[in-house]
Amino acid sequence: MTNPSAQTATLSDLGAMLRGMTPRLDAETYRFCSITSDAEVAALWGESLSLFREDEGATLILREAAAAQHGLPLHPRCSRLCWRCSLP
């Protein structure tokens, strides 16, 4: 088991953490898709990058191709940055 206090000490060096980050732009384009049908949410949640529920319905973040394939309204395009952090 890892010593939690050792991890805390390592992560407290913000400068080192920022220098160790290597951002990568995901090649995919994503769309936020608002869905009110529980059946559609159930059918699509496995394809989603993320899903969150609100009183008005659910919003899924889907790859642009998947959103278009399912005939969903295409809201503004979104990109995703992926970060990796190598701590010294």
Describe the structure.
The chain is α+β, with helices and mostly antiparallel strands and 88 residues long. It has a domain at 28-81: VC0802-like (2-Layer Sandwich), CATH 3.30.2130.10. Helix content is 31%, strand content 34%. The protein is built from four helices and six strands; from the N terminus they run H-H-E-E-H-E-E-H-E-E. It has a four-stranded antiparallel β-sheet. Strands 1-6 form a two-stranded antiparallel ribbon.
Order of helices and strands: HHEEHEEHEE
Helix/strand/pairing category: alpha+beta
Shape: elongated
Q: Kindly, what is the distance between the CA atoms of the first and last residues, rounded to a whole number of angstroms?
A: 20 Å
Outline the secondary-structure elements.
Layout: H1 4-11, H2 14-19, E1 21-25, E2 30-35, H3 38-44, E3 50-54, E4 57-63, H4 64-69, E5 77-78, E6 81-85
Antiparallel strand pairs: 1-6, 2-4, 2-5, 3-4
